[in-house]
Write a structure and sequence with these properties.
The complex is a heterodimer of chains A (812) and B (193).
Chain A (H helix, E strand, L loop, with lengths): L5 H15 L3 H14 L1 H20 L19 E2 L2 E9 L3 E8 L7 E7 L6 H16 L8 E6 L5 E6 L3 E3 H7 L4 H20 L2 E2 L8 E4 L4 E3 L6 E2 L15 H5 L7 H4 L6 H17 L11 H10 L5 H7 L3 H8 L5 H8 L2 H9 L11 H12 L12 H26 L3 H10 L5 H21 L10 H18 L4 H17 L3 H18 L5 H16 L3 H18 L5 H16 L3 H18 L5 H16 L3 H19 L4 H16 L3 H18 L5 H16 L3 H18 L5 H16 L3 H13 L4 H6 L13 H19 L1
Antiparallel strand pairs in A: 1-2, 2-3, 3-4, 4-6, 5-6, 7-9, 8-11, 9-10
Chain B lengths: L9 H9 L3 H26 L4 E3 H16 L6 H26 L6 E3 L12 H17 L1 H12 L4 H8 L3 H24 L1
Helix pairs in contact in B: 1-2, 2-3, 2-4, 3-4, 4-5, 4-6, 5-6, 5-8, 6-8, 7-8
Classes of the chains: A alpha+beta (812), B mainly alpha (193).
Chain lengths: 812, 193
Amino acid sequence: MPTLSPDDWQALSPYLDQALTMTEEQRAEWLRSLANQDRALASRLGALLDEHRKLNQEGFLEKGRVSLPATSGLVGQTLGPYTLVSQIGDGGMGSVWLAERNDGRFERRVAVKFIHIALMGREGEARFKREGNILGKLAHPHIAELVDAGVSTGGQPYLILEYVEGESIDCYCDQRKLDVEARIRLFLDVLVAVAHAHANVIVHRDIKPSNVLVSNDGVVKLLDFGIAKLLEGDGTVAAATMLPGEGGSSMTPEYAAPEQLIGGRITTATDVYALGVLLYVLLTGQHPAGKGVRSAADLVKAIVDDEPMRPSAVVVTAQDAATTSAAATRATTPENLTRQLRGDLDTILAKALKKNPVERYGSVTALVDDLGRYLRNEPILARPDAFSYRASKFVRRNRIAVGLASLAIVAVLAGATGIVIQTRTARRQRDLAFRERDRAGRITDFMTRMFKVSDPSEARGNSVTAREILDKASKDVDTGLAKDPEAQAEMMTVMGKVYASLGLFPRAESLLRQSLEIRRRVLGLEHPDTLKTMRALAATVAQAGRYADGEKISRETLDIERRVLGPEHPETLATMGQLAIDIDMQGRITEAEKLLQQTFDLQRRILGAKHLDTLATMDNMAWILMAEHRFPEAEKMQRDAIDLEREVQGPEHPDTAYAMNRLARILSLENNYPEAEKIQLEALAIQRHILGVEHPNTLRSLTNLGDIQTNAKHYGDAERTFKELHDIQLRALDRNDPNAAATIYNLGCLAALQGRTEEALPLLRNAVDHGLLPQYDLGIAMDDDLKSLHGDPGFAALVAYAQKHAEAQQSK
Amino acid sequence: MGVEAYRLAISSLIAAAEKGQGPAGEQLFAALYSELHRLAKRELARCGFGVTLSSTTLLHEAYLDMAAREGPSFPDQARFMGYAARVMRGLIIDHARERHAQKRGGLFEITSLDADAMEQPVDHRELVQISEALDDLAKAEPALAEIVDLKFFCGFSFGEIAAMRNVSERTVQRSWEKARIYLHRKIRTDLIV
């Protein structure tokens, strides 16, 4: 049979596609005519199609069983007085089963450990017996007890061990949000157990979270002496006694000491290292080899070669959601966590994690002693030298990042030389004005791109740095671009808008006002750019809650626009809409409604009923009606708007979904929670589909959904919604994003509503610490959801704390 | 929370693999592999001795499990199956190899066909050949290879695959027939060489 090369297949493939769509007769006919053009091709195809016919008859690949055989299905088997209930673990060495006593004498659950079938044989059995022997020697409250050992009727050796109902130490600490000190105290129990093993000349060699369980009543139990070793006379374990496959596969590389990975001598210092890794993980939430998924080979390299980062540096440098949550699960903030780790704990961990075993703590007891000194605030014995290499490397790396950021600012602020040069060479000569415009546009684009990182509606990446750039740039913009007032004003407007979207209104307003002043001076009162800044200023002042001032600016803008652009210009009408909102928010609802109606009529006539501005006005009218508590009318207006939105933009458009959000809100105010929830879920489905789960609008809808569920008193649902939202925010947003902080705040409210005070207060505090906007800070005392906390001294402290936080933010 | 370093959501791995980020494909494979392996064990531990578990059920379970765990960012079922089917093949073949090496029958089986068909299990060497030919086919026409994974290794029907991919059943069948020609030709050729 001729072979089929990739090229052959490529050539034949399209013909096969065609042929397979035909009936037998059609195919014969087609092949005949093809043969007239290309005999060779036709004959090869003919052969393949014959084969196809045969395969069909044979049922090739359609018969036969493809199956997965496996090692064991032992449920129900009995071992002496115990019956196997379910498999609870499967390690490199064997499987572990939960078993129950079946003789009814007393209820006892045990763990039964079988050796893996592949490891059976002389060596495996010998090893298994050894574990029995080892455990038999170790009676300690923090080591899982050996109950029995034996051989099943099937000839399989087993160990029966104390069954520890609990969770691994890292989960235990995180779930209970234990703080640093509590974690260390728990860890000391692990050390005591390991020290006991060492005193019996036994090295555990596989210390890792899943082998350190904490029972529900808080008792630490060290498990799995499966690869434990008896020390030889000289206090070491000779590498030659290792079993095949033992080095890499049965041990957990993440917790392995360098000497385990490179086949060095195993001593008690090997356990000291693993304990160091465990403590590092418990304290920072990260592995000393750093973050990121990597291959086993890279991991091994990191463990053997790279100095770990100082634990305190891990927390400050990893600017991400994981760090924030790592801190939160340690009942603190990243900043506080850093402070607690810096110094002694850094030093203690460095010593435990030394590459060279002889440089580590000489014994587990020495580590116990130093941690004890730390807890008692006494000087520790370990010397702080270990992390210097890595630290200096980090600073070097960071300096480059800092340098790049400064360079970008300099390039923009020092007259944007680079950009101008590029503009000149890349473009043909044009008149000056045009070039100036072009440049301003470029600067704006550039800056906007830079700042968007920190705009919460675009947020992703590193907000702290972006905020720093923004703060620095806005300070320098006065001087840096003084020679180019037009560019300066443009940048001030952009930065003002970004500050406004960050909710930092005073800063936004000051920049916009400066920009406006420059534009008025340079371009004149009536220039379109001047008007643009005025509109931004009006919106910002209104957003800041100063509607009277906003109204003044809107009116001023509107006067000029009516005069310069004309009373029916779309921009003029948009300003009318803004003015209506300003008026509405000052409580002059009738006046606002009248103006909005007027705007609506004009827009419908001039722009058409289906123009997007017109639809926006409809949304606002629905809003005003809602504010007037004329819910049925609001609902009708909003439903009409949605219908039009669907028609104009399609049912799956973001604006349609946005309008549905509004409707859900109105329905919620009508106490029609079931329908509100339904509409909100529909909007959410659209947004997830077209915008993605992480889009700000999708997240906003999720917030609304949680709000509706809270109002409906479906607290469980609401909590789930907010938790889901928070998970996404942790992933998608900056660690100090105000929206994420608001979600934590909402979770705090839900805890309070359900009477879980002790949970509510830390959540609220956490929200304040992670970027809660000042208006929330100041509203805590008056928030009805938090009523159950009134009278609690912790709550009073929180209110004061939040107030300070708000003031600090606003004065920035 | 535990250690963050060595765990990455399947959805992120899929996203990375789709962006063509080199090692993501292997990591995704490894992660799905251990996930399916774990589930198979769990299911069998739950169902007990001597049961037959269909790989289709296993994959559905796996999907529900992971989607529930990872939330709304998890890819839809069709996309997920595209990746998982290839992994399932690996799982089945590894076990067939292992069984051969151990020369002893397993106590449970996962089958891709109706349990009552009771046919002879496909010889593990043949499975390995099919798999190698499939890897070859995947280079030329990945979509065809995926259909074989879904149909032969995972036991999905033409109808189910068609629904997953939003194409007609007939189209799926044609792709299957075409893939089969390739595989057969490839396997026979290899036998001769």
